[in-house]
Amino acid sequence: MAVLHVLTGSNPILKQKALSVTAFDAGLETLLSDMLETMRVYEGVGLAATQVGILQRVLVAEYRKCLLKLINPVIVFRKGSVTAEEGCLSLPDVRLMVERASHIVVEAQLPDGSPVSLPLKGFMARIMQHELDHLDGVLIIDRSSILAPAL
Question: Residue 70 is part of a domain; what is its CATH number?
Answer without folding.
Answer: 3.90.45.10
